[in-house]
Amino acid sequence: MDVPAFCMLNSWKVGTGMSETKWQNWSGWVKAHPHTFYKPQTEDELTTLVAEARGQIRVAGSGHSFTPICESDGTLFSLEKMSGLIASDQEARTARVFAGSTIRDLGPLLHNQGLGLINQGDIDRQAIAGAVATGTHGTGKSLKNISAAVVGFRLVTPSGDILNCSAEENSDVFHAGRVSMGGLGIMTEIELQCTPAYALEERGGRLSVADLFDTLDTLRDDNRHFEFFWFPFADDVLVKTLNISDVGPKPRKRAPDGQDGPADIAFRKLCEISRFAPFLRGRFQRQMTEQGGSRYAGDAPGRSRWSHDAFPSDRNVRFNEMEYAVPAERGPDCVREIAAHMRSCGVNFLFPIEYRYVAADDAWLSPFFERDSVTISIHQYHKQAYAKLFGGVEQIFRKYAGRPHWGKLHTLAAGDLQALYPKWDDFCAVRNRLDPEAKMLNPFLRKILGVS
Question: What architecture is domain 85-197?
Answer without folding.
Answer: 2-Layer Sandwich (3.30)
